[in-house]
Each structure stands twice: as C-alpha cells, then as structure tokens.
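Much of what follows relies on a compact textual record of a protein's fold. With that in mind, consider the following protein and its fold in token form.
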Amino acid sequence: MNLKAKIYEVLKNADLRITPQRVAVLEAFYTLKNHPTADKIIQFVQKKNPNIAVGTIYKVIDILIQKEIVRLVKTDKGVMRYDEIHDHHHHLVSENSDMIEDYYDEELDELLKKYFEKKRIENFTIEDIKVEITGNFDK
C-alpha cells in the first residue's frame, strides 16, 4: 500500500474527513519517523505546502492525538515529540542527541506486568506501562 492510500485509510478509519491539511501532517509523521517535534512537522509540511498555517498544523496534530492516531511523547528534557506507532513499545532516549528509538521487549513487558500485579497499587488500575530508558547511542 502506498503512503497516500495508507493516510486515506487511517483518516477514514478514524471517521475524519480527508483534507489536504490532514494528509500533509500525516505524511510528515510517516515520512519523518524518529518521533518528530512539532517544529519538524511544521517545517516538513510548509516546505511542500507553504499555504498551510502553523495554527492549522497544530489543530490537525491535536485532532490526531484525540483520535489516537499519534501519541504525545514527552522527553525528560521537556521536549514534546510525537509517535505514530501503536504497537506496545518503550523508548530509548539519547542524552547526547535528539534521537528516540522504539524498543520492543516482551520479557520486560511480562516482568513489569507481574511486578505490578504483585504490588497491587491501592485505588489504582494500571491501563498500560511504558518505559523510557535514557542513555547514549554508540557512534
């Protein structure tokens, strides 16, 4: 499936109208990867579509978050990044660059699940567990 078809399908499945602005922003997410910032998304969109306003791009991002098409990822440095991958995963965050990598580990998932089942946090129901592991990637 090509990128445009994928974007149309995602918007249709979320009961969203297919607009040039939504297509452009989703294209940015799927093209940029690596958990882009809003600034990187804006740069990407406006390079191809200079007539799309910054405010419109932010509104589209907010709608995509509400519809759970993308997720907000806040780094320990307070930078807001976005993730379009919906599979359960964790993040490896580089301290010496702006790189964030997805990390999949079923053994870790099971370990955390069992740990918190054993701990039984009072008056709290765990919906999901995501781990952010901070370090540096070898160059």
Observations:
- The two ends are 34 Å apart (CA to CA).
- The chain has a mean pLDDT of 85.
